[in-house]
Amino acid sequence: MGRSLPHGRPHTRPMKPAARTAEAFIRANTALLRPPHVPEIALHLAHEAHDLWRRTEEELAEIGLPPPFWAFAWAGGQGLARHILDHPQIVHGGKVLDFATGSGLVAIAAARAGAASVVAADIDPFCETAIRLNAQANDVSIAFDGSDLVGSDDGWNVVLAGDVFYEKPFAQGLIPWFEALRARGAQILVGDPGRSYLPKHGLEKLAMYEVPVTRALEDAEVKHTTVWRFIGSSI
Fold it and tell me: Is residue 205 within 8 Å of residue 179, measured between CB atoms?
């Protein structure tokens, strides 16, 4: 998921935590909450005033933890999850990838909407445990892939990407991958609240939402979030 704490999420691979340690950390630092724009789904999220969010990226790095992006329901993901729940035909019966999944919010929405299979992918190893706990809380089945899937193709019918255009090199690498997936017939949906590196062309607007967020991480209390269909440069 795209991030702005404090200057965007670096696309680097952190060390993999032991599953038991990760679960203990998540349970100790989050509560089971419902994102304001997608109240049907419960997630292990950090409180706005919780100490977890008062720590800086540097302090977390000193103790060997990546910034906990999986512990917040980002605006792009909330908008995309809302759209999927309201339009389940988009994913119903299909093979779905939720790319840069973070908390797994969008993947859970796809599973709830009737997708035949859902893979939640993120290079942050804490996401594997967070998604397992979140899937259990919502009584859905979701697979996890911790590898960098950019450039790969496992035959997904639908690729969902919430808040991914936050860093220039990473965003530029996504475009040819999305082009290739779309060219062979996959549908690619992007949820974006106005991140800096959203493409200027090749997108079709599907819906717009006003998503409540926290000022601890964003520059406003409500983010104007758009769900786009990626149609590429050839359309």
Answer: no
Phi, psi at 69, each rounded to 5°: -65, -25
Question: Which helix (H) or strand (E) covers residue 179, if one does?
Answer: helix 168-183
Are the C-beta atoms of 76 and 213 separated by less than 8 Å?
no
Torsion of CA 108, 90, 225, 208, to 10 degrees: -140
pLDDT one-digit tens code per residue, 70-125? 988 999 999 999 999 999 999 999 999 999 999 999 999 999 999 999 999 999 98
The token pair that represents 158 in the structure block:
């639908």
219 three-state secondary structure: coil
Q: Where are the beta strands (DSSP E) in the chain?
A: 31-33, 43-45, 95-99, 117-121, 143-145, 158-162, 187-192, 203-212, 222-230
Residue 148 carries which side chain, given as an amino acid letter? D
Q: Which of 221, 217, 209 is nearest to 37 (CA)?
A: 209
CA dist 52 to 11, 207, 233, Å? 21, 33, 41
| CB contact at 8 A, 216 and 53 | yes
Q: Are 91 and 110 in contact (CB under 8 A)?
A: yes
